[in-house]
Amino acid sequence: MTRATVLRNRVAVVTGGAGGIGLATAQRLLEQGCSVAVWDLNSAAVEDAACTLRSMHADSVGVLGCRCDVTQTSDIQAAKSETETTLGPIDILINNAGYVRAGSFLERPLEDWNTTVAVNLNAVIAVTYALLPGMKDRQFGRVVNISSASGTLGVSELAVYAASKWAVWGLTESLRHEARDLRKAESGAGRRTTTDIRFSSVHPGYIKTGMFEGARIRGLGGLIVPLVKDHDVIARAVVQDALMKGKPVVMRPRSVRLAILLRGILPAAVFDQVVRLLGINQSMRNFRGSKS
After folding, report:
1. Residue by residue, what is the 3-state secondary structure of 233-245?
2. Does residue 89 have a cis peptide bond before it, meaning omega lies within 30 degrees of 0?
3. Of 275, 287, 279, the residue nearest 215 (C-alpha)
4. How far apart are CA 239 and CA 54, in angstroms?
5. Catalytic residue numbers?
6. CATH architecture of the domain covering 11-282
7. All structural domains of the chain with their residue ranges
8. What does the pLDDT look like over 66-78, one tens digit per residue?
9. pTM for the complete prediction?
10. What is the pLDDT of residues 162-203, one digit of tens each?
């Protein structure tokens, strides 16, 4: 069993941290005694988020807001430098920045799909690539990547979004194995201390408000996989389950795991029928989040 992680006095970066899951996660990290840097594309939202966090946690170690386009390497390096200068070396990374455009594959311009992959996957790679060397040097790090329930099965009108989130899960799993192999090699070489870097993925279902407002699974499927009540449900999963308890995969609602189980035991044709019966592929019909 993984030893519980103490977050007090750690420095955390939350990408896409000015709202939604990111802001809720920043709040919970501050409650645990972390210093938090909020990275976000929207300058005004970053300032508002930083002010909100400071007002709610006046006794916190530190709060920093950084305007950062995580698809741009120069922005990542600038935000990293500002964070380390202001708060100290970065111990924890929450890759939360996300982008969604819904619609059938040929309905939207290719530019939308390229942006989806750039934000949801390439930026996760780039930010992790920038911060991981420092974690290795200090022999400690925690990286939590926000995937999605749609990273466990395909969903109509979310093809590229789902693809990007599947890729995030695969990336996280592979990096987790690399980190484990490093610890094993260091232990085998007789090192007194080993590099304690851990990777986790968190897979939210549809949340009532925010990016996926209006999306829902109706009928029987909605009873089995209900809407997530609010962003704090996911923030709690990030901080308590992924970070503090060290769980490698966290799904909310927990019933999302059924998709993996059913895919594993059912023939493809039968699984497709189950997906249709549960109404999963009609879940985006009333989507109002980010369709324009």
Report:
1. HHHHHHHHHHHHC
2. no
3. 287
4. 19
5. 161
6. 3-Layer(aba) Sandwich (3.40)
7. 11-282
8. 999 999 999 999 9
9. 0.91
10. 999 999 999 999 999 999 999 999 998 888 888 999 999 999
